[in-house]
Amino acid sequence: MPKRKVWTRVLMHVLLIPFLVFALFPFYHMLLTSLKQDRELYDRYAVPLVIRQGPTLDHYIKLLTETEFLTWTKNSLMVTVLATSASVVIGTIAAYALSRLKFRGVNTFGTGIFVTYLVPTSLLFLPLAQVVNWLGLADSKWALIVTYPTFLVPFTTWLLMGYFRTVPKEVEECAMVDGATRMQALWRIVLPIAVPGLVCAVLFAFTLSWNEFIYALTFTSSSEQITASVGVTSELIRGDIYFWGELMAGAILGSVPIVILYVFFLDYYVSGLTAGAVK
Amino acid sequence: MAIGTLPTTAPAAPLSWRARAREILDRERVLGPLFITPALILIALLVAYPFCMALYFAMSNAFIGRPSHFVGISNFVRLWDADAFRQTFQNAFVFTGISVAFKLVLGIALALLLNQQLWFKRIIRGSVLLPWVIPTALSTLGWWWMFNSLYSVVNWTGISLGLMDPPGPNWLGQKYYAMAAVITVNIWRGLPFFAITILAGLVAIPKELYEAAQADGAGPWARFWFVTLPMLKPVLAVVVLFSTIFTFSDFNIVYVLTHGGPINATHLFATYSRMIGLESGRIGEGAAVSLYLFPLLVFVVWAQLRFVRRQAY
């Protein structure tokens, strides 16, 4: 490699450093805070960028034993898994119908899905709270399982329509000429080809519902029903006394499931992000 | 479509139930509507119906636990006359305008860098995208701590580098600093979306265009201005439209970081609507606040449909 090329390459990396620091520093600082002893944490003359007096797991232990954090995490998991599974199934069949079948109203419905996809959750949370009341789901995590598909289904449908369009129609028609029914063709031919798309849909739906905040904050309030995001942001803050160590430990642990998925499926996140937005 | 002719050779009676069901399911006119029914019911019950309710609430004096009466557009008028709402309205435009502008410019810069030959491509992309996948409410708690009035690491760094006079700004307690703080967190969280999407747009630009431009003597700047930007235009338009609607309707960051304060200086439609509608119980007015989002939504949907239709079909 010529010398000049190496230097440009180094320069590119150097230019990236500010972006990387900006992106990662908050996480570093959260982790650091959660591992510091209170004595050092609240010492205004200590250097905040490092741990000098030795790390401690006290904040994590307190979080797990003295708060309802585990219950909140369980709630988050249950809501996320159920809402995601239901949404991906509903979204998959809707996407298949919209991208493959000809019937009356197909275009209108496609547009409707796209419009719903763009409706922000903050526009509808007030009336939805009333609907949740009428359904008898006030202050229940089932309210979240029922309402999360309102943004997950349009999203998965839109994402999967793009993937289904890339499956050649001929493959499916061949199977049907050979005697398979349309359902068999969908199940045995189209879905296996669209697996990357399905993985993407599951990942994004999981992430979106794990991260959802405004509905969870509005529809649930008691400690046995709330999700991890709501629990950490509302129950760990009492009055004017903040327990910063526990708060940061909660924020870190509450993000762990997403980080695990993220580490394993990074490429899907990148490709899904572009497929969902550009299509 | 060979299956469609089956009924003439209908099988024997005991089997016919199943066979008939199968045969009916093979008709696109039947299967299509059947497949969209669950989604349709969901959207009708939990999106369209609540939306109509929002319209009704906004035109009534609904209050938690009390019968409501129709009051026409007086909620909208009263809000428009109230200083707190005017402030919210202005905040929403300042917040969205500045955030989206920064995300766009930084997003293009970051995408151009990510598109270079890099040594640790995967790790770098992974790190850049991280703020976007972590639950916003939780990561904003981290920022809240970073902007804490006593222990702010931002101020500590600023003072150590000689950029700030001790004790440094009280980020969340002063009007303009609080706005700067929420905007910073929004940029932090939204930049990955811009960068990665624009990167996908960059990768799709044919190499020949750059080679041709170079052959014509175009330098790096000219190539960026006359090849890259025009080719990116559709992607940029879609990203900006998406981001505008979601930044405008943002809730999490402001709710966690400032709760709309100090004195409404950072309230956005969503947080103000929640305060009026749930914390004060005036559901009618609260619904009217969030409906001020609606004209923007209509515009974005209209613009998106034009762009997206042109690209997809």
Which descriptors apply to this entry?
heterodimer, A: 279 residues, mainly alpha, MetI-like fold, 77% helix, B: MetI-like fold, 14 helices, disordered N terminus
Blueprint of the fold:
The complex is a heterodimer of chains A (279) and B (313).
Chain A: H1 3-35, H2 38-41, H3 58-66, H4 69-100, H5 106-118, H6 121-134, H7 141-147, H8 149-166, H9 169-177, H10 182-193, H11 195-211, H12 214-219, H13 228-235, E1 237-238, E2 241-242, H14 244-264, H15 266-278
Helix pairs in contact in A: 1-14, 3-14, 4-7, 4-8, 4-11, 4-13, 5-8, 8-11, 9-10, 11-15, 13-14
Chain B: H1 13-25, H2 28-58, H3 74-81, H4 83-114, H5 121-133, H6 136-146, H7 153-160, H8 175-203, H9 207-215, H10 220-248, H11 252-257, H12 269-279, H13 283-291, H14 294-312
Please outline what is shown here.
The complex is a heterodimer of chains A (279) and B (313). Chain A has 279 residues and is mainly alpha-helical.
CATH topology of the largest domain in chain A: MetI-like fold
Overall residue-averaged pLDDT value of chain A:
88
Q: Over all CA atoms, what is the radius of gyration of chain A? A: 24 Å
Number of helices of chain A: 15
In percent, how much strand structure appears in the residues of chain A? under 5%
Strand content of chain B: under 5%
Order of helices and strands of chain B: HHHHHHHHHHHHHH
Q: Ranges of chain B with pLDDT <50 over ≥5 residues? A: 1-12
**Quaternary structure of the protein:** heterodimer
Structural class by sheet pairing and helices of chain B: mainly alpha
Number of strands of chain A: 2
Q: Helical stretch count of chain B?
A: 14
Q: Kindly report the name of the CATH homologous superfamily of the largest domain in chain B.
A: MetI-like
Number of domains of chain A: 2
CATH superfamily of the largest domain in chain A: MetI-like
Measured as a percent range, the helix fraction of chain A is over 70%
Instruction: Please outline the major beta sheet of chain B.
Output: none
